[in-house]
Amino acid sequence: MEAVIRGVATLLVAGGVAAVCATRFPGALLVFTGAFLYGWQSHFARIGWGWLAAFALLAMAGLFLEMMASELAGDRPRLS
Asked: How far is the C-alpha of 18 from the C-alpha of 34, rounded, in Å?
């Protein structure tokens, strides 16, 4: 079961990195979700709460900046 969870977490992070370039998918949130899932699977021994807090702040900042850029460009705000 650990291998399945680790595989799903890896796919979420890889998909999130790829989705950052796409226009319709929230890539930052996928990366955060994958990091959280991997941390949970390893009982937060490898990725601790400090790193997860940093990832969460980066994800929120990325979403905020993306929404602001959409507003300034005249587009409707989208999630990545």
From this structure: 13
3-state secondary structure the chain: CHHHHHHHHHHHHHHHHHHCCCCCCCHHHHHHHHHHHHHHHCCCCCCCHHHHHHHHHHHHHHHHHHHHHHHHHCCCCCCC
Tokens of 22: 């796409």
pTM of the model: 0.74
Each residue's pLDDT, cut to its tens digit, for the chain (80 residues) gives 888 988 999 898 888 888 877 766 778 888 899 999 999 998 999 889 999 999 999 989 988 987 887 788 776 656 65
User: Is the separation of the CB atoms in 52 and 68 below 8 Å?
Assistant: no
